[in-house]
Every structure is written in C-alpha cells, then in structure tokens.
Amino acid sequence: MYQRELSARAGGRHVRRRKSRLPFYAFVLAIIAFVLAFAFPEERPDKPSGQSLPVRTLSGTEDPVLPPVSQGVEPDIPASGPEDSWMLTLVNPWNPLPEDYACTLTSLSNGHSVDERCYPDLQAMLDACREAGLSPVICSSYRTREKQEKLFQNKVERLIAQGYSRENAKTEAAKTVALPGTSEHQLGLAVDIVDRSNQNLDRTQETTAVQQWLMAHSWEYGFILRYPDEKSETTGIIYEPWHYRYVGKEAAEEIYRQGVCLEEYLD
Ligand SMILES: [Zn+2]
C-alpha cells in the first residue's frame, strides 16, 4: 500500500479518486506527508461509494494535510530572500528609482527623516559616535523627488551664472548633484553626516574625527561610505566622505572588508 501511495504522488497533481477508501485514510496520509515533508499529495481519499462529494468539497477535508507540507517546503527559501532586498536597492545614474517609489519615514529630532527600517541602526551608530566624544551632525537625509529636482536646478543655475551654457551646466551639475530619480537620498536610506567642527561638503571632511570614526565603524551598524575615493567611475558620483548608505549589517561588513563599492558588491 505504501508503495502505491508513492507512485500515486509521483503521478503529479491530478486529483485521483478511489473507491471505498475510509475517511481515516486521510489521517494516515497526513501523517505520511508530515514525516516525508515533501511533494504534494494531491490524491484525495474518496468518501464511501454513494456519498461521493465534489472534489472542491473534498479538498476542504484535506486542509489539515497542508500545513506540514508547506513546512517541508520552507527550507528551500534562501535565508536572505526578497524580504531583505529593500536594503540593497541600487540607485545610481544608470539605475533610477521607480517614479512611484515610497517608503515609511521616521522623523529624527533635528527635522530630518529616514526610512523607518534603518532608523534603529542609524540611532545606535550616532549614539556610539557621541559616546566616543565626537559630534556628528546629519545635514541631509531623505529627500523627495521635488527636493532633488530643486537642488539640481539650483546647481545648474549657479553654473550658468559662472558662464556655462545650459547644456554644459546640466552635464557638469550631474557630477555633483544626482539627477532627480537617481539620488539615494530619495530612498530614505542615505544620510550625509559631517563633523560639527567642519560642516563643509568637500574633501577636507575626510580628515575630521567624525569621518575617521564613521569610516572605521559605520559597517558595524549596517552603513557604508557609499562613494569612496577612486570608485567614481563605478558609482557615477564623486568622492563624498560624508555620504553613508544603509545596506544592512551583513552586506556592510562584506563591503567594508573587501574594500569594494555597492555596485561591485552587487555585481
Ligand atoms: Zn548624500
């Protein structure tokens, strides 16, 4: 009988009907399915002759079999599945955000806001930095598409005032201000952090105590220095020793240890 059962399963997902099976057989089948924890025994034990019910009704009687079967399938799902993919979303000049991208924000005490999912780790990182006697200041965080558009246009206008043609100004502006739709700040997973003693967004930032600390420890909290020196060709963005991106602790540690950028890590 057992052998017949297996071959009936191997026969696929067809609902097979048998005559003269006793109801208790459903229970036996459930036990077998649970123990083996694989396949989908679609075979339905029939009601005694003369009491046959439509298959749909019968399937209802099989419900107790389903939970053990689905438990058997679960281990096949990768540990880092789609539920983690949000933290590795790639946004750069070649990978714009969907127009309708949305996330749930948490407001910080200084008026900034970030994706609520990275907030606890961000707070822990800043707390640890302060405990080290330093003064980190978040100067930029989540931005709406409109805000990014405004920043970009302002940059274009400043360049035009310096003598650039409008076309050249746009090309030049895109090197330092991401085109709307391609900024990680729209993700809600990026923050610009500076040292209270030097709030200039330029190369001098890397020498500050806050940056030295963040560059050494941000990975412990799931953040990476997103635009490292000498990776501009790959990231599409100039060196920014103030822009940190949340990617989760596992990826951040690997990116830090390998000395790669997010594009290289995801490649
Ligand atoms: Zn930034």
Describe the structure.
This protein has 267 residues and is α+β, with helices and mostly antiparallel strands. It has 2 domains: 2-76, no CATH class; 82-143 and 183-266, Muramoyl-pentapeptide Carboxypeptidase, domain 2, CATH 3.30.1380.10. The chain is built from 11 helices and 6 strands. It has helices at 2-10, 24-36, 55-61, 66-73, 119-131, 145-161, 166-176, 209-217, 232-235, 249-258, 262-266, and strands at residues 105-107, 113-115, 136-140, 190-195, 223-225, 243-246. Strands 3-4-6-5 form a 4-stranded antiparallel beta sheet. A hairpin with a 5-residue loop joins strand 1 (105-107) and strand 2. The longest helix is centred in the middle third of the chain and has 17 residues, at 145-161. The protein is globular. The protein starts with a helix and ends with a helix. Mean pLDDT is 78; it is low at 1-19 and 34-79. The structure holds zinc ion. Zinc ion binds next to strand 4.
Task: Offer a quick outline of the entry.
This protein is an alpha+beta fold. Helices cover 40% and strands 9% of the residues. The protein folds into two domains: 2-76, no CATH class; 82-143 and 183-266, Muramoyl-pentapeptide Carboxypeptidase, domain 2.
What's the arrangement of secondary structure elements?
Blueprint: H1 2-10, H2 24-36, H3 55-61, H4 66-73, E1 105-107, E2 113-115, H5 119-131, E3 136-140, H6 145-161, H7 166-176, E4 190-195, H8 209-217, E5 223-225, H9 232-235, E6 243-246, H10 249-258, H11 262-266
Antiparallel strand pairs: 1-2, 3-4, 4-6, 5-6
The structure holds zinc ion (ZN).
Zinc ion binds next to strand 4.
